[in-house]
Amino acid sequence: MLGWIKNSLFTERKSDDGYELLTGGALPTAAGVSVSPESAMRCSVSFACIKVIAETIEQLTPHLYRRTGDDRERATDHPVSALVTKAANDWTPASEFRLVLGTHFATHGNAYAFVNRDTAGRVVELIPLDPRAVSVRQDPRTMAPVYMVGTSNTALPAREYDRSEILHIRGVGLDVHKGASPVTLGREAIGLALTLESHCGSLFGNGAKPSGLLKVKGTLGEEQFRRVRAMFSNFYQGVTGKRIMILSDAMDFQQVQLTSVDSQTLEMRRFQVEEVSRFWRVPLHLVNEMDRATHANAESMGQQFLTFCMLPILRLWCDAMAITLLTPVERETHYFEFEVNDIARADIAARFEAYSKAINSGVLNPNEARGKENMPGYEGGETFMRPVNTAPAPTTGGAGGTMGATDA
Hints:
This is HK97 family phage portal protein. By secondary structure, the protein is α+β, with helices and mostly antiparallel strands. 39% of the residues lie in helices and 18% in strands. The chain has three domains: 1-209 and 261-344, no CATH class; 211-254; 348-403, no CATH class.
């Protein structure tokens, strides 16, 4: 059994005992650069996608609810409630805990935390784990996942953990027990984006011009060649150290490398923003690509981000916390739910118009609407309203029968 995990960049392979190990190096790409989670964070687009997902999870608070008949209430008396809403442990606020695990999830496709329990089996701490130091295998008897957690920066013996000891939030992937890293899946797109950025830096580092050439009539001796180069370079070479080509006699030079205009660098860089964003399903306006964003569609794109990007992730969080932090009996009456109203809200005019319609139609009472705005209720505000020109539909007869009775 492998007792340690290398401190480097990581790829996946299987050990003899069935563990999914993280070893090796960054994966090469056709663009000529190797892409790893570390180098992906230096790509502005992938970093922005990871950041927006992680910080969205950070600002949304999961609450533990208890079903009470047809209603529900927050189970603030449950010990797990304080861990997910206030502090995961003595040194990690709950928001920071969500930020760390959200970053791991968006980068590696998996997020892990050690679930520390007291002697009675109650959860007392949640401690984030480095996903590069966690490997997974399937127990051949129970078919449940078993986790081996080592230390990523030292060669210490690894230790096995039961499923109940590890909070595992798994992303999309073909593996039964682990999600696939978006960075690994999108390494070609990220690699091209990094290459284009490096190309633009090199281009403008040389004054946004290709290197020049100097034509001299006749043949230059070796000493003359060195003198001409030194004299010309003193005036024109600049600070980048780009050397000047000197041609003599009938030699000529024809440039074959594409210029920034020929290669449509700007268009390619803009396209890579779209291409990389697809792997995280983040709308372009959230990574500051505003070419197609307008006042009319920005709100719609924000709603799409919540519906198609964040809600599936939040559902994974809720189910993972429920199956790991709650007992089977508690799961019958308790469940986790994220409060998403803050990012689902429309502008204030549309929001208050919706409240007005909900109150007038009896869907909400005034105090419930005020509660959604974090304002205290008032006396009499718990009364539900109904328009005076409406009444229950008759249970017998029709409109014609009623009119006939009236006429009679």
